[in-house]
Specification:
single chain, alpha/beta, nine-stranded mixed sheet, four-stranded antiparallel sheet
Length: 289
């Protein structure tokens, strides 16, 4: 069997952030669990076929035109695609880390010129070559797959270029960051000619709606008329609160307001101090703004 639809979207499999990405796609109705060992999923309601592959393979397939769009790392796009060939449509804020030039800790203060002609192990040979060229230098690039951090300790390389989230793995291998080359994260990207396609817009729009909803909270409460102005100062909402009279209670009103999720407890505490009653917070599932 083959994918049903010619418009194909790359989705990473067996990756560290698969669970977080699947949660986001599921909430946006852009995911269906594949059958065991199946390498694609068709979504008839949107006219999309999801192609399951490793993040690096997705970047390559975007570059060669096999995929119209997909989810992969910003670093992998920079590594495999020509300038302007692929456009980042939406950063997802997942898997944030840095691509770094790391050297033995005792040499981290050395100038870049010190590393001219050095043996550099990396799984990002193109980005590494570009990094050295920007400094007017050349290096002996040792392209490797799998673990890179141990290549200096085993004397296979003088330095490395690799992804680092916290720096603890580098430290454990006697290395320190000399320079940060690129800040990266998982992004939704598309080939330049596909960016204006309505299906790319559909995916991006749904994901933006879910991501925005996750940042917000709906707060509902009841407040007496004479404390309404103070309550609105505590929580004025994205634009303004929705205020409704309560049947049989001429001096009591129900209020609904949308606020940033990180202010949830601060706002609820403030409303309680003002004498608000029946204060509830409701997590938003989706949105369109």
């Amino acid at each position: 069997m083959r994918p049903q639809f010619p418009f194909r979207v790359g989705v990473p499999k067996n990756e560290r952030l698969l669970g977080e990405l699947m949660s986001l796609l599921s909430q946006a109705a852009l995911w269906r669990d594949p059958k065991k060992r199946k390498l694609f999923v068709d979504l008839p309601e949107t006219g999309l076929s999801l192609i399951l592959a490793r993040a690096g393979e997705i970047a390559v397939s975007l570059a060669d035109g096999s995929l119209a769009c997909g989810f992969t790392g910003r670093d992998l796009i920079e590594e495999h695609a020509a300038a302007g060939e692929i456009e980042v449509v939406l950063p997802l804020g997942l898997g944030r880390c840095d691509l770094v030039f790391a050297v033995p800790t005792e040499l981290r203060a050395e100038p870049m010129a010190r590393w001219s002609g050095a043996r550099v192990a990396t799984s990002f040979p193109n980005l590494t070559r570009r990094f050295f060229a920007e400094h007017g230098l050349e290096a002996q690039i040792k392209a490797v797959t799998g673990g890179v951090e141990g290549k200096v300790a085993t004397e296979e390389a003088d330095a490395i270029v690799d992804l680092s989230e916290t720096g603890t793995t580098l430290e454990a291998n006697g290395l320190s960051v000399a320079q940060t080359i690129l800040r990266t994260e998982i992004v939704f990207a598309a080939r330049k000619e596909a960016v204006a396609d309505p299906r790319v817009g559909l995916i991006a729009g749904r994901l933006r709606g879910v991501m925005k909803a996750r940042e917000l909270i709906l707060i509902e409460y009841m407040i007496p008329r004479d404390r309404m102005a103070e309550a609105i100062r505590v929580a004025h909402g994205q634009r303004s609160p929705t205020i409704s009279p309560i049947h049989g209670e001429p001096d009591l009103f129900a209020v609904r307001v949308i606020e940033p999720k990180d202010r949830e407890n601060e706002i609820m505490d403030g409303l309680q101090k003002l004498g608000a009653e029946a204060i509830f917070s409701i997590q938003l599932h989706n949105s369109r703004f």
